[in-house]
Amino acid sequence: DIQMTQSPSSLSASVGDRVTFTCRASQGISNSLVWFQQKPGKAPKSLIYRASTLQSGVPSKFSGSGSGTDFTLTINSLQPEDSATYYCQQYNSYPLTFGGGTRVEIK
Amino acid sequence: EVQLVESGGGLVQPGGSLRLSCGASGFTFSSHWMSWVRQAPGRGLEWVASVSEDGSQKHYVDSVRGRFTISRDNAKNSVHLQMDSLRAEDTAAYYCARGQAHEYCGQGTLVTVSS
Is the pLDDT score of B102 beyond 90? Predict the structure, then answer.
Protein backbone atom coordinates (compact mmCIF):
# COMPACT_ATOMS: atom_id res chain seq x y z
CA ASP A 1 0.00 0.00 0.00
CA ILE A 2 1.15 3.56 -0.69
CA GLN A 3 1.49 5.62 2.47
CA MET A 4 0.77 9.35 2.26
CA THR A 5 2.47 11.56 4.85
CA GLN A 6 1.44 15.18 5.32
CA SER A 7 3.40 17.83 7.17
CA PRO A 8 2.97 19.74 9.30
CA SER A 9 -0.04 18.22 11.05
CA SER A 10 -1.18 21.72 11.95
CA LEU A 11 -0.14 25.30 11.43
CA SER A 12 -1.24 28.73 12.52
CA ALA A 13 -0.87 31.74 10.25
CA SER A 14 -2.12 35.29 9.90
CA VAL A 15 -4.59 36.78 7.46
CA GLY A 16 -2.72 37.68 4.28
CA ASP A 17 0.04 35.12 4.78
CA ARG A 18 1.16 32.65 2.17
CA VAL A 19 1.22 29.10 3.52
CA THR A 20 2.67 25.95 2.04
CA PHE A 21 2.39 22.39 3.25
CA THR A 22 3.58 19.12 1.90
CA CYS A 23 2.47 15.59 1.10
CA ARG A 24 4.91 12.74 0.53
CA ALA A 25 4.11 9.39 -1.02
CA SER A 26 5.96 6.26 0.06
CA GLN A 27 6.49 5.39 -3.61
CA GLY A 28 6.14 7.22 -6.91
CA ILE A 29 2.61 8.09 -7.94
CA SER A 30 3.35 10.23 -11.01
CA ASN A 31 0.91 13.16 -10.73
CA SER A 32 -2.06 11.12 -9.49
CA LEU A 33 -2.69 13.32 -6.47
CA VAL A 34 -5.69 15.32 -5.32
CA TRP A 35 -5.96 17.92 -2.56
CA PHE A 36 -9.13 18.38 -0.48
CA GLN A 37 -10.34 21.05 1.89
CA GLN A 38 -12.66 20.00 4.71
CA LYS A 39 -14.36 22.28 7.19
CA PRO A 40 -15.85 20.93 10.44
CA GLY A 41 -19.08 19.05 9.89
CA LYS A 42 -18.85 19.39 6.12
CA ALA A 43 -18.01 17.09 3.23
CA PRO A 44 -14.53 17.22 1.73
CA LYS A 45 -14.19 19.52 -1.25
CA SER A 46 -11.76 18.85 -4.06
CA LEU A 47 -9.39 21.76 -4.72
CA ILE A 48 -6.71 20.41 -7.03
CA TYR A 49 -6.38 17.20 -9.04
CA ARG A 50 -3.59 15.75 -11.12
CA ALA A 51 -1.29 17.43 -8.59
CA SER A 52 -1.58 20.91 -10.08
CA THR A 53 -4.89 21.33 -11.93
CA LEU A 54 -7.34 23.63 -10.22
CA GLN A 55 -10.83 22.18 -9.81
CA SER A 56 -13.56 24.21 -11.50
CA GLY A 57 -14.74 27.08 -9.32
CA VAL A 58 -11.79 26.98 -6.92
CA PRO A 59 -10.07 30.35 -6.47
CA SER A 60 -6.64 30.76 -8.02
CA LYS A 61 -5.16 31.53 -4.59
CA PHE A 62 -4.81 27.75 -4.27
CA SER A 63 -2.02 26.07 -6.21
CA GLY A 64 -0.41 22.67 -6.23
CA SER A 65 2.86 21.30 -7.48
CA GLY A 66 4.96 18.18 -7.50
CA SER A 67 5.32 14.83 -9.15
CA GLY A 68 6.57 11.41 -8.15
CA THR A 69 6.73 11.37 -4.37
CA ASP A 70 6.76 14.99 -3.19
CA PHE A 71 3.88 17.41 -3.49
CA THR A 72 2.96 20.82 -2.12
CA LEU A 73 -0.21 22.85 -1.68
CA THR A 74 0.13 26.63 -1.41
CA ILE A 75 -2.52 29.07 -0.28
CA ASN A 76 -1.85 32.71 -1.13
CA SER A 77 -3.30 35.58 0.87
CA LEU A 78 -4.78 33.44 3.64
CA GLN A 79 -8.30 34.44 4.69
CA PRO A 80 -10.46 33.43 7.67
CA GLU A 81 -12.60 31.20 5.43
CA ASP A 82 -9.50 29.14 4.60
CA SER A 83 -9.48 27.76 8.15
CA ALA A 84 -9.94 24.03 7.53
CA THR A 85 -8.18 20.69 7.36
CA TYR A 86 -6.44 19.88 4.09
CA TYR A 87 -5.95 16.31 2.89
CA CYS A 88 -3.99 14.81 0.05
CA GLN A 89 -4.96 11.53 -1.61
CA GLN A 90 -3.25 9.36 -4.20
CA TYR A 91 -5.24 7.65 -6.94
CA ASN A 92 -2.33 6.01 -8.73
CA SER A 93 -3.12 2.54 -7.40
CA TYR A 94 -5.43 0.66 -5.06
CA PRO A 95 -5.98 0.88 -2.19
CA LEU A 96 -6.56 4.61 -2.61
CA THR A 97 -4.96 6.32 0.35
CA PHE A 98 -5.24 9.67 2.11
CA GLY A 99 -2.72 11.63 4.11
CA GLY A 100 -3.44 12.37 7.75
CA GLY A 101 -4.31 16.00 7.06
CA THR A 102 -2.94 19.47 7.87
CA ARG A 103 -5.11 21.65 10.06
CA VAL A 104 -4.83 25.34 9.21
CA GLU A 105 -5.78 27.86 11.87
CA ILE A 106 -5.95 31.63 11.53
CA LYS A 107 -4.17 33.62 14.24
CA GLU B 1 -24.49 21.07 -11.34
CA VAL B 2 -23.15 17.81 -9.99
CA GLN B 3 -25.21 16.49 -7.08
CA LEU B 4 -24.66 13.39 -4.97
CA VAL B 5 -27.21 12.58 -2.27
CA GLU B 6 -26.62 9.76 0.19
CA SER B 7 -29.26 7.94 2.20
CA GLY B 8 -29.64 4.83 4.31
CA GLY B 9 -27.50 5.60 7.34
CA GLY B 10 -28.61 5.02 10.90
CA LEU B 11 -28.03 3.13 14.13
CA VAL B 12 -27.37 -0.61 13.86
CA GLN B 13 -26.19 -3.25 16.31
CA PRO B 14 -22.83 -4.98 15.88
CA GLY B 15 -23.20 -7.82 13.41
CA GLY B 16 -26.09 -6.09 11.66
CA SER B 17 -26.50 -4.81 8.13
CA LEU B 18 -27.23 -1.54 6.37
CA ARG B 19 -27.53 -0.56 2.74
CA LEU B 20 -26.39 2.90 1.75
CA SER B 21 -27.57 4.51 -1.46
CA CYS B 22 -26.38 7.50 -3.44
CA GLY B 23 -28.39 9.23 -6.12
CA ALA B 24 -26.44 11.18 -8.72
CA SER B 25 -27.39 13.97 -11.09
CA GLY B 26 -25.79 16.69 -13.17
CA PHE B 27 -23.36 14.48 -15.08
CA THR B 28 -23.25 11.38 -17.27
CA PHE B 29 -23.30 8.81 -14.48
CA SER B 30 -22.38 5.80 -16.62
CA SER B 31 -19.12 7.48 -17.68
CA HIS B 32 -17.56 7.67 -14.23
CA TRP B 33 -16.15 5.40 -11.59
CA MET B 34 -17.96 5.87 -8.27
CA SER B 35 -16.58 5.51 -4.77
CA TRP B 36 -17.43 5.53 -1.08
CA VAL B 37 -15.22 7.32 1.42
CA ARG B 38 -15.75 7.37 5.18
CA GLN B 39 -14.66 9.39 8.17
CA ALA B 40 -14.85 8.10 11.72
CA PRO B 41 -15.64 10.70 14.40
CA GLY B 42 -12.61 12.95 14.95
CA ARG B 43 -10.52 11.01 12.43
CA GLY B 44 -9.26 11.49 8.89
CA LEU B 45 -10.66 10.37 5.57
CA GLU B 46 -10.56 6.71 4.51
CA TRP B 47 -11.38 5.29 1.10
CA VAL B 48 -13.78 2.34 1.34
CA ALA B 49 -14.67 1.04 -2.12
CA SER B 50 -14.86 1.92 -5.81
CA VAL B 51 -16.78 0.53 -8.79
CA SER B 52 -16.03 0.98 -12.47
CA GLU B 53 -18.29 2.65 -15.02
CA ASP B 54 -20.03 -0.59 -16.04
CA GLY B 55 -19.80 -2.27 -12.63
CA SER B 56 -17.38 -4.95 -13.81
CA GLN B 57 -14.48 -3.84 -11.60
CA LYS B 58 -14.71 -3.38 -7.85
CA HIS B 59 -12.05 -2.54 -5.27
CA TYR B 60 -12.24 -2.52 -1.48
CA VAL B 61 -10.09 -1.48 1.44
CA ASP B 62 -8.87 -4.58 3.27
CA SER B 63 -10.85 -3.82 6.44
CA VAL B 64 -14.21 -4.17 4.65
CA ARG B 65 -13.46 -6.76 1.96
CA GLY B 66 -15.83 -9.71 2.34
CA ARG B 67 -18.27 -7.67 4.45
CA PHE B 68 -19.17 -4.73 2.19
CA THR B 69 -20.39 -4.86 -1.43
CA ILE B 70 -20.44 -1.90 -3.78
CA SER B 71 -22.84 -1.92 -6.72
CA ARG B 72 -24.37 0.50 -9.17
CA ASP B 73 -27.49 0.90 -11.29
CA ASN B 74 -26.72 3.03 -14.34
CA ALA B 75 -30.38 3.09 -15.36
CA LYS B 76 -31.22 4.79 -12.08
CA ASN B 77 -28.03 6.84 -11.68
CA SER B 78 -27.37 5.31 -8.31
CA VAL B 79 -24.59 3.57 -6.42
CA HIS B 80 -25.02 1.43 -3.32
CA LEU B 81 -22.96 0.07 -0.47
CA GLN B 82 -24.27 -3.07 1.19
CA MET B 83 -22.67 -3.32 4.61
CA ASP B 84 -22.90 -6.64 6.46
CA SER B 85 -21.34 -7.93 9.68
CA LEU B 86 -20.96 -4.37 10.88
CA ARG B 87 -18.47 -3.58 13.63
CA ALA B 88 -18.09 -0.67 16.02
CA GLU B 89 -15.10 0.52 14.01
CA ASP B 90 -17.35 0.99 10.97
CA THR B 91 -19.02 3.91 12.75
CA ALA B 92 -18.44 6.91 10.48
CA ALA B 93 -19.88 9.44 8.10
CA TYR B 94 -20.03 7.79 4.69
CA TYR B 95 -19.59 9.93 1.60
CA CYS B 96 -20.45 9.01 -1.95
CA ALA B 97 -17.87 10.38 -4.40
CA ARG B 98 -17.44 10.62 -8.14
CA GLY B 99 -14.38 9.03 -9.63
CA GLN B 100 -11.19 7.64 -8.15
CA ALA B 101 -9.99 11.19 -7.50
CA HIS B 102 -13.24 11.89 -5.65
CA GLU B 103 -13.73 15.12 -7.54
CA TYR B 104 -17.20 15.58 -6.06
CA CYS B 105 -18.55 14.32 -2.74
CA GLY B 106 -22.05 14.19 -1.32
CA GLN B 107 -22.94 15.58 2.09
CA GLY B 108 -22.65 12.19 3.74
CA THR B 109 -24.79 9.83 5.76
CA LEU B 110 -23.97 8.79 9.31
CA VAL B 111 -23.62 5.15 10.28
CA THR B 112 -23.45 4.27 13.98
CA VAL B 113 -22.71 0.70 15.02
CA SER B 114 -23.51 0.26 18.69
CA SER B 115 -25.45 -1.97 21.04
Answer: no
